[in-house]
Design a protein that fits this description.
Elements: E1 2-6, H1 33-39, H2 46-53, E2 54-56, E3 62-64, H3 82-87, H4 94-98, E4 101-105, E5 109-114, H5 119-127, E6 133-137, H6 150-167, H7 174-193, H8 215-227, H9 234-248, H10 254-264, H11 268-283, H12 287-290, H13 293-318, H14 323-338, H15 341-351, H16 359-363
Parallel strand pairs: 1-5
Antiparallel strand pairs: 1-6, 2-3, 4-5
Length: about 375
């Protein structure tokens, strides 16, 4: 079986109490049965603290309770989990032990990504010299991959490799590369819609020319759309609403403001390239679940537009943009959209409407 992950995964180490945020917040964690049995043997007073922190969710499953402020009932004032701190990492439940690692199994292939809802994972991705994958084969048997046409998966494997190669071509602006990937995904979608998976291999990304329009308007509408999704933290929707109004206010000086920001923050294009590669790597193959490839290819471009303009407006407001501020915006997007299935699905489905969401034209604007 093959195992694949981005190279920077190996550098990840939890920041613990030094993290600018915490993963022990907002999530309703359901421990696995093995962990629940393990908790019965926890030393005191930790054992009693664990039992007092457990409750039942709306589905009747045992889960860790959240305090009124959204933090896990077990989280201590030093920002640490007492299970890990006082008893050992090996006693964490499977979900907590794995985060921010998310693994997808595709029968012959296991892929692991670091979710950028984790600030440290976002920083590692952002600061990587380039998005590179590493792969190993353990020589073992492939897993079961029921219900998926192997021809479709093979076509997705090949096409994603081409999409990542397009994104890695530094000879073109990141906006044109994102447009190329979106247009490529659109061509592939036609093949998928007709079940012509073998024809996907005949599609190749074609370089588009600059000359579109509507980038500001597209992004402002995207901010409004995302602000209307169900948030985990109200501050996210409030930020998007405020930034949308500020963006419309730049209509007369938009080009000059973008140019000034890019001169002041020259790493912006490399950062967005890495972000786009992450989105394509993590989401492209999930097309096997619903056949919705174009929405995922378009999402990479839409999210990069969103993040770019949030960074630009923060720089304009404060006169500077620190990498930690940018990483926090990446994490907020991931937490509020990537981790909420309904929000992610709504975004992908809406992007399919090219008339309402003319993404490629917005990306190709000079």
């Amino acid at each position: 079986m093959k195992f694949r992950q981005p190279e920077y995964n190996r550098l990840f180490c939890c920041m613990g109490g030094d993290c600018p945020d915490t993963c022990c917040r907002d999530w309703s964690i359901v421990p696995d049965e093995e962990a629940l049995a393990d908790y019965e043997r926890a030393p005191e007073p930790l054992g009693s603290a664990i039992q007092n922190a457990l409750t039942h969710d709306d589905d009747g499953d045992v889960c860790f309770a959240l305090r009124e402020d959204g933090f896990c009932a077990l989280l201590t004032e030093d920002g640490l989990c007492p299970i890990q701190r006082d008893w050992g990492e090996e006693h964490l439940c499977a979900h907590c032990a794995a985060y921010p690692r998310f693994t997808e199994e595709y029968g012959c292939l296991s892929e692991t990504a670091l979710a950028i809802s984790c600030p440290e994972a976002a920083r590692l991705l952002m600061e990587a010299e380039a998005f590179r994958l590493e792969e190993r084969d353990d020589g073992g048997e492939d897993g079961v991959f029921d219900g998926v046409d192997p021809e479709l998966f093979a076509a997705l494997e090949e096409s994603r490799g081409r999409a990542l190669a397009v994104l890695g071509d530094e000879g073109r602006s990141v906006w044109l590369r994102l447009a190329d990937v979106a247009a490529y995904a659109d061509d592939l979608q036609d093949c998928i819609d007709f079940g012509a998976y073998e024809a996907m291999g005949e599609c190749e990304p074609e370089p588009l020319e600059a000359g579109g329009k509507g980038r500001l308007a597209f992004t402002a509408r995207l901010m409004e759309f995302c602000a209307g999704l169900e948030p985990l933290r109200p501050a996210w929707s409030e930020l998007l609403e405020r930034r949308k109004e500020e963006l419309w206010g730049l209509k007369k000086t938009y080009g000059e403001t973008c140019a000034a920001f890019e001169r002041a923050y020259p790493a912006w294009e490399r950062h967005l390239t890495n972000l786009a590669c992450y989105l394509v790597f993590r989401h492209w193959h999930k097309t096997v679940n619903d056949d919705a490839l174009y929405g995922r290819g378009a999402m990479a471009g839409a999210v990069c537009l969103l993040i770019y303009h949030l960074c630009l407006l923060q720089w304009r407001e404060k006169g500077c943009l620190f990498p930690g501020d940018e990483a926090a915006l990446w994490s907020a997007f991931s937490r509020e959209i990537e981790h909420l299935d309904e929000n992610l699905t709504d975004l992908i489905e809406n992007l399919f409407d090219n008339e309402t969401w003319p993404l490629i034209a917005a990306l190709c604007e000079k």
